[in-house]
Amino acid sequence: MDDTLKDCFHTFGAESKIRTPTQIHAPGRISIGNWVSLGRHAKILMQTDFSASAAMIRQHYPDVPHDFDPRIFGPRDPVLKIGDGTCIGDSVFISCALSIEIGRHVVFSDRVFLSDSNHLYDNPDLPIVLHANTLGRPIVIEDHAWIGINAVILEGVTIGRHSIVSASSVVTSDVPPFSVVAGNPARVVRFICGKETPGESAPPAAKAGHDAMALLLGWFGHECQHVVSADASILRSGLIDSLATLRLLAFVETEFGLHLNVADLLAAKIDTVRGLAELIAKERKR
User: Fold this and answer.
1) CA neighbours within 13 Å on the CB side: how many for 19?
2) Is residue 23 within 8 Å of residue 42, measured between CB atoms?
3) Which of 115, 182, 264, 280 has its CA 20 to 30 A from that of 138?
4) Residue 104 lies in a domain
5) Which candidate in 119, 131, 210, 222 is catalytic?
6) Among candidates 59, 57, 61, which has minimal Cα distance to 72?
7) Is 119 marked active-site?
8) Is residue 214 domain-resident?
9) Can you give the CATH number for the domain in which 146 is found?
């Protein structure tokens, strides 16, 4: 990229580079740290205004009633921040309508897609291409994460520090730090070095069964729609209801071949995700 174009960005750090050809819209809303590398054929689309969609609807479909909410069909104020040392591969597509923050020394493989908003489609009398985007929810990718080839990361997602998103995964919910996720939708498949949170090492028993811990935390994250800690209370706290408890027991039986019931858990005084993982690890060794 021509050095004279660097002044177009909000900030552009030392030794950073953008390989061409590439397409970047509204670079003044983009902050790039030091030693950042952006690959060829990348596309960064800052969704700054949807007024044109409203104008085209009025012109081409004047008889179709539509509520032109100015928050939706109007100017936006999107912000994209890319931290020091981050490396972004070829053909990456970033669509930002609200806020995307990428930490330090993050690696994006080729053909990764990020979008902090979704395309609306609610009016069947209008073509989808003329619908605007939702207001969006921020995406945060913390330091040291690795995003695999063809991965998709959608609105409202936080990807924890030093976590890995496997190739072709579709991430729709938060990824815990020090975890590996895979699939569509992405689920936790293991933890790295047995860690659940930065600076916290699991006890030896949990380390021995960290695969069970990873699967359980992934299940709870899906069930509760947020990241659940290993020490979260599961039965007495109301974290999951009675129907979810039955689903949990069915999951344990299907995934680990271990038949449990609520009475077993209460008798064993199991009331945390960690305790359940340790029980599973213990039973599997028998």
Assistant:
1) 12
2) yes
3) 182
4) yes
5) 119
6) 57
7) yes
8) no
9) 2.160.10.10
